[in-house]
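question for whoever is on the cluster today: can someone run the full assembly for these? three chains, 942 residues total. i dont have access anymore since they changed the login thing
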Amino acid sequence: MILAGLAGGAGVFALSAASPSNPLAHTVAGWEFASAEARENLAAAYDTGGWPGAWWQWLLTSLTTGDLGYSRLLHTAVGEVVLGRGLNTVAATLCAVVITAVIVLIASVLLARFPGLAHHSAASGLIGAWLAVPSFLIALIIVVLFGRQLPNPATSAPITLIPSVAITIALAWSAMLIAAARSAAAEVWSTPWARALIGRGFSSTARVRTVLPSVLSAVRAPAVIYVPVVVLGEAAVEAVLSYPGLGNALVEAAAGADLPLLATVTAIAAAVTTGLVLGVRSFGAGGDDRFLVSGAGAGGLGKGYA
Amino acid sequence: MNRRDQSPSRQPLRPRRRSLRPSRRVWGVLILGVLLVLLICGRFMPGEGTDFSRALLPPVDGGLLGTDHFGRSVAVTVWDAAGGSALAALITAAVTTAIGAGIGVVSTLSNGLSKVSTGLLIATLVVPSMLFTFIVVGILGGGRTAIMVTVALTHWPLAAQLIGPKVREEWTSGWVRFDRCLGAGRTQILRWHVLPAAGGRVAAAMAVIFPSAVVHEATTAFLGIGVDPAAVSLGPLIAWGQSDMTVGAWWTLVVPTCALMVLLLPPTILARRLGERPRSL
Amino acid sequence: MTEPVIGIRTATLSLPGTGEVLSALNLEMRLGGITWLVGESGAGKSTLCNLLAGLSPVDAKVSGVLDLSEIVGARDGRVASEKRDITEAAAPGDGRIGLGAGQGRTDLGTRWGRIGLGTRQGRRAMAKLRRSGVIAWAPQNAMDTFPPAMRLTEWFSRTGLDSPDLAAYGLENSILRRLPHQVSGGQISRISLAAAVAKSPRLLVCDEPTAGLDPEQADAVVGVLNDQASAGSRAVLAVTHDLSGLQRNARPGDRVAVAFNGHIVEDCSVAAFFAGRAANAYVQALAAAAPAAGAHPLPLADGARPKPWVYRDGDELRRLGEESVRTAGQGQPAGRMRTASGSGPKHIDDGGGSE
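^ ran it for u. tokens below:
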């Protein structure tokens, strides 16, 4: 059932946005840039109505070869955009993952070290406030405060822009994960076995070592599931910081109704998330759906729009 | 009785009361409500006309909080925009929660239906809601209404997951069965058990969806996707503020940003507080 | 009675919305013997144990002093240096421990070994004492207090005990290779006790060590506690609800402290307790409730018995308890007579072997 839901989610989006039966795809973009041969092929596949799979396959190949998938705004084949800009996004994401991991690990160790921290109302309020700041605002603050020090996006290499993008994404991401860690820590520290660690006078390192795995296991599921959600959700960040990533391309495509690009990016996001969800489901702790749902819920409660 | 009164130093043997937390929570909700009403009033204020001769006047000179790029009073414009956002987000949150609660309760009726509901929740993960909003609004247009519709479409499974199982759990609980045996009717059980139990979850769901809707609108409008750049909305105001900042007009950026945070902070913190208890969703 | 004692002086713990759970509680725990803490549910027994274990709720207001002055010795008669660790100063030879000067500072209790339970410094000192094993705690429901997914050997090595010897508890050492849930309830409570005792504490706090055990196992556990108390010259505080087990196993010289509503209303010897020679009526009634005494807590009232579920005004046992708290000195609970200023504890006459 979950599989059906996943497949449905991915398929519906990819199909509705990119299928040849979508009249918008014919009129707004793609069609006018397709070669005459491609048009004939498509029309033939469409008219015969034989195998829906046949024209779907044809569509995929034409998208990847750049025949139909021609971005109106960027004047390049979608495949090239995805390859070139996707790499930038991957690089920024990897940096963000590292920064996030460090932040979340520090927070988790603190939560495991100090039992009262998870229940502390100031800590809870701080996390709430942190979660409330939308990520485009964080990026905006960075631009306003450090605008002069930041490299000029028009002239400098993308790699010089990575730190600011990665930090912003990491900030948005770690808030969510720390919120999950906090509630996990609150739960762990209310169990008798964790309280017994205090009562029995375990040293603080032993306490951290015993409690930390429980805290981190609660962070794992939302962390993995939300990789593409956060990264694409932070398209706004890339746009504000003028980072030449996929998210920025996506924003431009949405603003300019550039359908082939939109459809491709959406399909990629859907595919990656589907893969990750399935991966967590198959290999994650417990491997049951409750785990996934609680991960989704933790994110939902944490970052409303993720 | 009087024995007890003679020794004030001792704790009277009353059943232990719960802590004062709930009443604090009620206060928080009340303050939030008043704030919301005040904000929404701004929506119905007479709007300011554009007057480029008065553009970018600093605070005091140009009224309470200065004037913006179009010569409008920043205070009035931001109030208007924030009020509009708040009203739309409130309606969205209420409608989404209602839909989600309905579907959630129905889906708990059978095992298969609940699996469908879980599947849908995970399916909404597959396409990020922000991406969905960009696509729909970018292609179809429709401004604020369209954004709110996409928010409702992507957020109802969250409300369903929060509320449905809780109602079901309450309805099948031992104490409800006990009350039924004592002859309590459906409405009584609803009033005594189900509504109080679900109330917290409903509030939590709304407190999640409200800021989410505000952020969706602000981000989409900020990026200029499907929105008239001169529209009275927090996103464009912040975007204009960013460009006016370069000529030193800091108030055009600071005021709408603060207004956005005022809209986002209380419900998010409230959602965290409410969300602390339903940890296992 | 020349054995030194560890004292809890005027321990008060109040929770917001609940009020005082412990009110100016005084308790003395003799080294070399078990102090049995009995009393009805809600009297504050577990709260006291948790207080010593550092597990009071965060929002609790705590005051009071843990008085270790009689077992503390400063090295060379001089004040130990500030930095000195307790373990370092501990001198097992003469059975006296030294405390770093940080725990003996003026605001804590003006003298050596007096630890303020409510102060931050005092809490830190208590944590240090627990870590070094001067105070040990064996929690209630031992099974839940072990991490469910961790083998017991690993757990023991985290506490700093690599090869605990369980022979004294009638267990094979190989049992530690199992997970907690693969061990029976009686075995795990003995293992829990072994973990608490392993660092040879001076004060051992056992929260219901015999709960949930069948009589044989309960007797074995009490046997272990007796051995520990006498052999290691330790003070043992043990909470129990099991009056018949107490009567079977306790040595007549052990003391029974009766808690009621946050006070210790009586502190007498086991023999005196079961012989009904306690000073106040509540304790007498409680002792009479022991199965061996016929399990009649009270002589039947003249009229109809009070309805059992009318708790507040109808419960005779409770009424007696309230009365005893009140008559013990007009708002002064019985315990407070034994002030910290040195006037000797007001012991009820022990009367040795009255059987």
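summary bc i know u wont read the tokens: The radius of gyration of chain B is 24 Å. The interface with chain C takes residues 1, 3-4, 6-11, 13-14, 16-20 of chain B (CB under 8 Å).
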